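Hi there, hope your week has been kind to you so far. It would help a lot if you went through both lines with me. No rush at all, and the record is pasted right below:

***
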Amino acid sequence: MNTEATPTDDLAQRRGPAARLLGCTLLLGSLLAAVPSPAAAQPAVAERNTRHALVIGIGEYLVAEIPTLHGIRHDMVSARRIAAAMAIPEANVRMLRDHEATADRIRAEITALNARVADGDRVFVYYSGHGTRWSDPSSSTGACTEGLMASDGQVLTNAELGQRLAPLAQRTDKMLVFYDACFSGGVAGAPFRTRSLRMGESAITPKFTYANAPAQCSQPSNFRTRSLALVMQQQQALPQNVVHIAASRPDEVSFDSSTQGGFATVGWRDCLLGQAQDLDGSGAITVDEVTRCAQAKVTAGLAGQPGILGQQMTVAGNASFVPAWMGAAFVAPAPVVVPAVVPVVVPVVTPPPAPVLPPPAPPRVANPAEILAELHQQRDGSRRVVATVRQPQLKIGTDTLQLDITPARDGHLYVALAGSDGKSLYLLYPNDLAQDNRVRAGQRVSLPGPGWEVVAGGPVGTETLLVMVTDAPRDLAALGQEKSGPFMKTLLDADGRARLQWILANGTPAQDCGKAGHASCSDAFGAALLQVEAVK
């Protein structure tokens, strides 16, 4: 693309001078698998003081009737590693372990977390311990209430937790809540499930307790779902901004390994640290993709255990959220060690012909429009951006793209275009002719600006536009790119896709960011996804 020619792969010609806490678990789950090797782990990422974590693990209770969970000590370590992968500084991680995690202390820590989190920050909340259910006296239908068991035997219900976490969810860019516990049935009438099983060196214990809970609430037929995700939506927490990960379904128990921790937590940890795959080839690995990887590990870990039918992890909320920088494209392969050649005299044997196998299917690679759609899923739902195109259809070679954008907040404006050819992706704004991309809340911006324009270049098809208004600027110089006139054409190899996802979805913390007169440190952004038809 240049300012004089009309490329045929997108809107192209530039003119002008240059032309829940319920259902069993909601935190990170664990899995009986080895810790990934350094070669499989993602590169270290810079810690961000805009990210926070509250990690709660209760293996030893003050109530004698509640069974001990010996794997909790491992879960606490796993949760720290997850927090580190999410770029949460150690100083911003609050830990509550065993006897100190009383109901009042948990409430106080949630209140303190709410006090220190600023608008646009990110939060990770993790709980590993026992879940329970009991009859709800306020229910006319005999429904049961689900909750998490604090170390003093008090229960924090999903309703209470939803009310306490909702104010956080309303202010954060993203809040990821992971429960490795169980509140559900499927255990009544099966006594062996209420005591530890053996798996090699490990004791496998259900993370469910009957303490203070009537037996009828352990029956799946009594279960009426009152998920934390639903409670938080009722509290006006935007589902776009919250992710709930549960170690099992509402009618299942989840399991604890005495030697490694919760099956769901271990699996999620290892997958987040590099074992998950970018299934759609978008350049980023989402919560859904991490959980799919973890589920495979949980299923394999529990396979063959008598009486255990499995444990299915569940996700509610924004499953497309990208929780960490995986950077698979940046991991150098392990060096190949070639052994020394030792001459050996062997008889000549004619090998049988090798079977002819079909070639493996090529890995899926997301097209540019799908990449922009995934980036759009990272937006903060509370940061509204109103964006419209003046002409939804543009005649190739004649009509110009015109956008009107009104942000709800001050910030930095970026516009990316996925071409109708299904192969190209351009950053239209800012560009060499319009570099000051700062915008003001409530003030409409019309693009293109003076001295440049974008004429429909074809081919016939759909052009996709992502309009972003970010709190903090993005480091566009770090993108894989090549110049196309005054615009930037993004490289879409594995490295380029990964960099695009990370850079556009995460802010660029600068010195003194967050202070008066300086850029925000927040990663949050508002966004709109638009489409334009290129026609003949």
About this structure: The chain has a mean pLDDT of 79.
